[in-house]
Amino acid sequence: MHIYDLDTPAVVIDIDVLERNIQQMAAHCKGLGITLRGHTKSHKNPAIARMQVASGSRGIVCQKLGDAEVMAKAGLDDILMTYNIVGRQKVRRLTELARWRKMTVTADSEEVVRGISDQARIDGVRVGVLVEMDTGGKRTGVQSPEAAAQLGQLVMGLPGLELRGLMTYPSLTSGKAFMDAAVEKFHELGLPTSIISGGGTGHEAISKQLGCTEHRSGSYVYEGLSRISRNEDLDPQRCPLRVVTTVVSVPTRDRVIIDGGMKTFRLFPTYPYGKIIEEPDASIYGMSVEHGHVDVSKCSRKFKVGDRLTVIPLYQEGVTNLHEEITGFRKGEVELVWRVEGRGKVR
Amino acid sequence: MHIYDLDTPAVVIDIDVLERNIQQMAAHCKGLGITLRGHTKSHKNPAIARMQVASGSRGIVCQKLGDAEVMAKAGLDDILMTYNIVGRQKVRRLTELARWRKMTVTADSEEVVRGISDQARIDGVRVGVLVEMDTGGKRTGVQSPEAAAQLGQLVMGLPGLELRGLMTYPSLTSGKAFMDAAVEKFHELGLPTSIISGGGTGHEAISKQLGCTEHRSGSYVYEGLSRISRNEDLDPQRCPLRVVTTVVSVPTRDRVIIDGGMKTFRLFPTYPYGKIIEEPDASIYGMSVEHGHVDVSKCSRKFKVGDRLTVIPLYQEGVTNLHEEITGFRKGEVELVWRVEGRGKVR
After folding, report:
1. What is the predicted pLDDT for the residue at A221?
2. What are the chain A neighbours of B108 within 8 Å (beta carbons)?
């Protein structure tokens, strides 16, 4: 069955391109001499996580506990949660995971580490901890090397926790002084630094320069937005994720309407919406909730209702999170259907 | 159980406010002398659709077949699909629905109506058709009153179809000449106009001025974006949908980070992200995938990890489409949990 024969809108993945992206990132990190830890938030799909690990990712990264639970059930192990786990319900789910999987979390406050320690002690499990530093990302993370060391010392003294090192996001060259000072303080105090974890697709070499032992990348599996941010094209040879759509209306010579809108593509501001593979001169200029609005004034061919158009979406992670199933294909022919097991796991 | 005791991020609905919104829109349309037909795309929830019908909505509107199937199974009837149904798989699902529900579709081309007619004839069912006009919305719809009449005549001659009238979206005063001419042509040709359907929350009075017999509104159940577009506040007395979040990090005095980001709220460009009910002086200034970034520099209180903050999201329809379940409450106390049955039904 050809992907054009699927009912639309259909989210599809070119498996050949996906495999190549996964292998190339593993080779890139190996060449840099830094361990890759594959993030799973872009795909939320245990099958793709297994491909990452098989190609050389050391364990995986999850952003929400619901994702980690899905991955653990699917056999993935050595899971890093780069998220402050807060509240009794979540902490209990974390210690439950720690019974059968090697779990490491990042943390940036006393409240977070004490909450996890209390439950880990009751449940008799050990949870690894990396102290998260805000080295310029201005999101979460302690604000100084001193605060990192102070939190590290606290973790060392709390039952049920095992301090494993430090973490930052994203890896920025401007954060080097902060990181060097934090590592030095950890060494002075005899705190472990077996993991120094940097992150961000495209920031692999920076992590190496910063002295990180491992690097977290995720969006490399699909590329898309990361390519646009590097002023590169949405190349079908690099972007495996696509949405097959159908032309449902040809109201004027200049405009066709496709059957995917915001609820299929997830609108992303300021950038273009995506690229139509079959018609490089067509431009998606707007989206309503269930319709995509395409300017075809520069196309030479005549469009008709029922035509299929394949879109490389810009923000691929947003697309996967909207759909339950994704069809894998090679050379246009359907090979399998994956369930996006982690879709909608916001807790 | 108080909504603050739910694990977060938790999408919740103030049922009292929801009921009032539904009743007020029904009263508004009754006052104008126009029939309300409630759109269900904002909530995708059969329970809320039933509330719309119980308050005076004449049937319902769906934008995708998957939504219509969910609503039909839940007992809703007289379903208008404001979407060109294209392709064999979809047309068969439509005729399947027409076996046991009164189905009406909009259409703007010969291809669409012939495709439906072919299958309806085979299956021995009747599908109602409204000719969709582009009276200024510049999306789908025929481009002239003449084209509307021509398509209407074609529908009259096709088996399995029952022409029921005309449709436009959105209802615009600038579209009056187009609509008057189309209705006149329909009358001249003896084509039925038992339904002349206008649409868009806030456009009810315009539909009446345009001579519409019914008006399609949907986002009124939650308000939100429609209020902001009228320069009104995201008032908790008008906006029943909220997201209860937890503060997971207090990195600086000016900034707190909550546990809901783009995958909880769905980013909407150019507008603010939402309003925090407990802290009117706080401002959500950014969102990463799973984190919300809140500026609290103007707040007098001190925040700590674990604090609950309740956000009225701006783009409420985008939120419901990301979550499987929504908790209904009255006066802060949990009353029930609704499944968002239509979530992710893009086909």
Report:
1. 95
2. 249, 251
Point out the residues of chain A with pLDDT beneath 50: none
pLDDT reading at B174 higher than 70: yes
How many angstroms away from the CA of A9 is the closest CA of chain B? Answer: 6
Nearest to B9 among A246, A293, A347 (CB): A347
Q: Which pLDDT score is estimated for A226?
A: 75
Beta carbons of A84 and B249 less than 8 Å apart? yes
Tell me if chain B has a CB within 8 Å of the CB of A302: no
Domain boundaries, chain A: 3-12+229-339, 15-221
Predicted local distance difference test score (pLDDT) of residue B18: 97
Task: Examine the pLDDT at B211 and tell me if it is beyond 70.
Answer: yes
Contact A269 B267 (CB under 8 A): yes
Q: Which of the four CATH numbers 3.50.50.60, 3.20.20.10, 3.40.50.2300, 3.30.450.20 does domain B15-221 have? A: 3.20.20.10
- Of the residues B219, B249, B259, B339, the best mutation for testing chain A's interface (the one with the most A CB atoms within 10 Å of its CB) is B249
Q: How far is CA A193 from CA A182, A186, A190, A298, in A?
A: 10, 7, 9, 57
Record: contact B268-A267, CB cut-off 8 A: yes
Contact A111 B304 (CB under 8 A): yes
Mean pLDDT of B240-259: 97
Q: What span, in angstroms and rounded, lies between the C-alpha atoms of B320 and B315?
A: 9
CATH topology classification for A3-12+229-339:
Lyase, Ornithine Decarboxylase; Chain A, domain 1 (2.40.37)
Reported as type and span, the H/E element at residue B246 is strand B241-249
CB A334 within 8 A of CB A6: yes
| Portion 12-41 of A in contact with B at CB < 8 A | 41
Burial class of residue B156 (count of CB atoms within 10 Å of its CB; 0-12, 13-18, 19+): middle
Q: Do domains B3-12+225-339 and B15-221 have the same CATH topology?
A: no
Q: Would the CB atoms of A268 and B270 count as touching at under 8 Å?
A: no
**Predicted complex ipTM:** 0.94
Rounded CA-CA distance B59/A331 in Å is: 45
Query: Whole-angstrom Cα distance, residue B79 to residue B132?
Result: 16
Residues of chain A in contact with residue B322, where contact means CB-CB under 8 angstroms, are 321-322, 344, 346
pTM for the model:
0.95
**CATH number given to B3-12+225-339:** 2.40.37.20
CA–CA gap between residue B241 and residue B245 (Å, rounded)? 13
